[in-house]
Amino acid sequence: MGHSPSSDLLSGEAIERVLASIDIPPCPAIVVQVMDETQRDDPDINRLARIIANDVGMAASAIKLANSPLFSRGAPVGGVPQAVARLGLTNIGSIVVTAALRDSLKGLPEDVLERFWQRASTVALAAGMIARRLYGIAADQAHAYALFHDAAIPVLMRRFPAYVEVHAQAQLGGEPLCALEERHFGCSHDIVGALLARNWGLSPRIAQAIRFHHDAGAYELPEKVLAREALSLIAVTQVAEYLGAEILGEPDFEVGETLYARAVAHLGLSPAELSDLHEDLAQRLHQSGQ
Q1: 219 near 262, Cβ under 8 Å?
Q2: Domain 5-25+109-287 has CATH 3.40.50.300
């Protein structure tokens, strides 16, 4: 199956359309500091812990995630240095980016943001758990991608008053969300999200996966367009979203039977493995109070 020119990760035309429609939130200084440190050849964990400890909200988020069902092992951690050591560099980066993005979106109603980030956290927990069972997919990358892959939705929500209505329309079925976004606002959250991820220092693979996570032909795209590692992040998260909705008794607005089947096939999951995943995930979600 071929792909159109619009399949380019971030073409000049796509960037121009995004920037003409929406202001990408600037990357805060603390995110720059953390990303600079995590991407060094020899990162200083103690310096990283000090940077995070200076922000109460980020420190609390790091400790909470380190004690979550996905990462908890042994005694609970009570401080930022222990949390950083337990979580690893990729997860620390995703925590800082997410907390900073939340702060940049304070113009939205708190209950709307809380529901959005609660769902993102649930999907990220599930994606990380699934990745841990699979060969060749880093759990921290899966967690970071799943946490951030829809982050442009609240950005668009703040920019366009009618966005909530358009998002609800997509959930009713029919026209895909990205197509509705393009028609009403001249941009879509996959492209905005990829640009946001790139500007905020997330890995190129995460940005690439965000760009194609709503592409119906993603599983047919060649390696030079969509790297297998990025496609695996998409697949893990689609399985996480589908199973999470099923376990929590919520409607599945994001994936659907067809994409779920494609994701399962891509990951090579057997019915027995899916059954084990479903049972383990249900237990972990209930433990974490999701």
Answers
A1: yes
A2: no
